[in-house]
Design brief:
The protein is of the alpha+beta class and 382 residues long. Helix content is 34%, strand content 12%. The protein is built from 13 helices and 13 strands. The strands form 6 sheets. A 3-stranded antiparallel beta sheet has the order 3-7-8.
Length: 382
C-alpha cells in the first residue's frame, strides 16, 4: 500500500514471491539499524555538519510517518501526491469523502526499525529509513481510533500508556513511540552511547507484586488508579539534558517538543503528525538561516536540589560521568567508509524517484538568508 507513495524515507518493497508454500518480501539490505549505528560512533562530534544531518534525518522520519498516518489523506494531482490534511474547521465536520479516507499506523516505532543506508548518492552520511511494517494497520475514519488494545502488539519499552490502560489505540500511539525514539537520539548526541545505555536504568522500576520483574517503560500506571504518569526517571533525564554542555537552542527546542507535545500520557493531547512535521520543518528553516542555532551552547543553570541517584546529574556530580564537550567526539562515518569494501544493493537509493511525493510542509532546503557563501552553505547543509 505504501509503495505507490514512494517516500524516500520509507523502506522500498522490491519484490514478493512464494516458494515451497511460504511467502517472502524482499527489501534493500541496510548497513545498520539506528541502535547499531549509535554504537559504532560512541561519541559523535558536535560539528554543524553532524547536528545538521541529525536534524534533517529527524525531519525525514517525521515526514515518512506523516505519509503513513495520512495514507489516503492525499490526492494525486498532475502525477504528484499533495496533502489533503484538513484544516481545524474542516476537521470538525464530516463528509462521505472524509469517511473514505484511509489512515495508517506503524505500530512499532523504535530505533531497531529505523535503518541506515550508507550508500546514498545525495548524502555523504547516508539516510535513515522507516522499516518493519509488520504491525502496520490501515483504517478508515470510522475505525482509525477504535482499535482495541488487546489486539495490538509492539515493543514493551516503547509502548504507549493506552496499551496497558486497555483503551483504544489510534495514530497517537506512534507519536509516543516517536517521542521515545527522538529522546534517545538527542541523548546519544548530547551524552554519547555509554550514557544512552544507562537510560533504561534511569527509568526502570521494580513491580511491587513481582519483585523479580523489571521494566524500562517511559510511564508508570499508578497503583489502584486507571491512569498513567510519565516516569520521574524520564522527566529528570530530560531536565539533566537541558544542563549538558552541548545543549544548544536546537537541543532545547527538541527536548521541549518531546516532553510537552509527544510524551503525553493522554493520547488526545499529543501533537498530530501534520503539525509535528511543520514544527520540524521550522527547525530546519532556523538552521538554514542561522547555523549557530544548531551548535552554540545555551545550557540551563544546574539545579540546586540533590539529584536522583540514577540521574545524569548525580553521575556527573560524583565524577562517574563527564559529559562530552563541544570539541570532543568522532565525525560521522562517510559513505564508502562505513562498511569497508561493501556496496550492498548499490543500485538502490532511498532517494530515487523521490519527486513522486510532494511534502507540503514548509520546505526543508530554502535559500539561506544569512550571509554565508554558497560553498560554505553547501558543505554545511545535508
Amino acid at each position: 500500500m505504501l509503495k505507490k507513495r514512494n517516500h524516500p524515507h520509507v523502506v522500498t518493497l522490491l519484490a514478493t514471491f512464494r516458494f515451497n508454500n511460504r511467502y517472502y518480501l524482499l527489501f534493500p539490505y541496510a548497513d545498520y539499524n539506528l541502535r547499531q549505528y549509535w554504537k559504532t560512533t560512541p561519541i559523535p562530534d558536535f560539528s554543524q555538519a553532524t547536528v545538521c544531518w541529525i536534524l534533517h534525518q529527524l525531519k525525514a522520519i517525521t515526514s515518512a510517518l506523516h505519509t503513513v498516518h495520512e495514507y489516503q489523506a492525499t490526492k494525486e494531482l498532475n502525477g504528484t501526491y499533495r496533502s489533503m490534511e484538513p484544516t481545524e474547521s474542516e476537521a470538525s465536520s464530516s463528509s462521505s469523502e472524509d469517511d473514505e479516507r484511509v489512515f495508517g499506523r506503524h505500530g512499532d516505532i523504535k530505533a531497531e526499525n529505523i535503518l541506515l543506508f550508507a550508500e546514498d548518492v545525495d548524502n555523504e552520511h547516508g539516510v535513515l529509513v522507516i522499516a518493519d511494517f509488520g504491525l502496520t494497520a490501515f483504517h478508515k475514519k470510522a475505525s482509525r481510533s477504535r482499535q482495541k488494545a488487546e489486539y495490538i502488539t509492539g515493543s514493551p519499552s516503547y509502548e504507549g500508556p493506552e496499551l496497558m490502560l486497555h483503551s483504544n489505540i489510534s495514530r497517537a500511539y506512534d507519536i509516543w513511540g516517536l517521542g521515545c525514539l527522538y529522546l534517545e537520539f538527542i541523548s546519544w548526541l548530547v551524552c554519547g552511547w555509554e550514557q544512552l545505555e544507562r537510560f533504561p536504568e534511569a527509568r526502570v522500576r521494580i513491580a511491587t507484586n513481582i519483585p523479580q520483574l523489571h521494566d524500562d517503560m517511559f510511564f508508570t500506571i499508578l497503583e489502584g488508579e486507571k491512569r498513567a504518569v510519565v516516569r520521574h526517571g524520564v522527566e529528570n533525564w530530560i531536565k539533566d539534558l537541558h544542563e549538558m554542555p552541548r545543549c544548544s537552542q536546537f537541543i532545547h527546542e527538541m527536548l521541549d517538543l518531546i516532553s510537552k507535545d509527544m510524551l503525553l500520557v493522554d493520547p488526545v493531547a499529543r501533537i498530530w503528525i501534520g503539525p509535528l512535521n511543520s514544527k520540524m520543518a521550522q527547525m530546519v528553516e532556523k538552521a538554514h538561516q542561522n547555523p549557530l542555532y544548531l551548535t552554540a551552547p545555551e545550557p540551563f543553570e544546574a539545579r540546586d536540589q540533590d539529584p536522583d541517584p540514577s540521574s545524569l546529574a548525580a553521575l556527573r556530580r560524583t565524577g562517574i560521568f563527564h559529559p562530552p564537550l563541544l570539541t570532543e567526539g568522532t565525525p560521522l562515518p562517510r559513505r564508502s567508509g562505513l562498511v569497508p569494501n561493501a556496496r550492498i544493493a548499490s543500485d538502490y537509493s532511498p532517494q530515487r524517484d523521490s519527486k513522486a511525493f510532494v511534502d507540503t510542509s514548509p520546505p526543508t532546503s530554502p535559500r539561506p538568508s544569512s550571509p554565508i557563501s554558497s560553498q560554505t552553505f553547501s558543505d554545511l547543509m545535508c
